[in-house]
Amino acid sequence: MSKAFVKETDHDDEEEFGAPPIPPGVKNYLTPEGHHRMKTELLNLIDNERPEVVKIVSWAASNGDRSENGDYIYGKRRLREIDRRIRFLTKRLDLAEIVDPTVHFGSDQVFFGAIVEYENQDGDVTSIRIVGVDEFDPLNGKISWIAPVARALTKARVGDTVSLKTPHGVDELTILDVQYPQS
Description:
Blueprint: H1 10-16, E1 28-30, H2 32-61, H3 70-94, E2 96-98, E3 115-119, E4 125-131, E5 142-144, H4 148-153, E6 161-166, E7 169-179
Parallel strand pairs: 1-2, 4-5
Antiparallel strand pairs: 3-4, 3-7, 6-7
């Protein structure tokens, strides 16, 4: 069967880019930085990368036999990848709701965008920032607002102890500090 007749779904795009699906009826919360990064990537794909690949594919197609033309074959493949990423970013940005964490500056309560330092019951201190689904980067301390840790910490205050269910049992987390960007 020709690939032209195979329907690609939204779910396939999300899996390919490692992004968890956004539950139906839920906004795609983003920090202003995350929104700017996604929008910049989308505009770069549309304005720079896609036109460049189209030129290469057009040039390769004009050379004749397309079945053994590597530039044509790989160019078409790259074009499909770019179009898939454009579709993904467009859908995510359409659902986006930008939440500015600076409005909570000076607060000791945990909300979206907060940088939270907490201690678990073993005495390990961890610092995380609660960000949008499309911004999470656990290696750099950024976790999604839908992550279990973020859900447990949300709305708690400095000094509060919250319970977090883990595969190893219940862990008690004590909030040591909450910070928000000033502006």
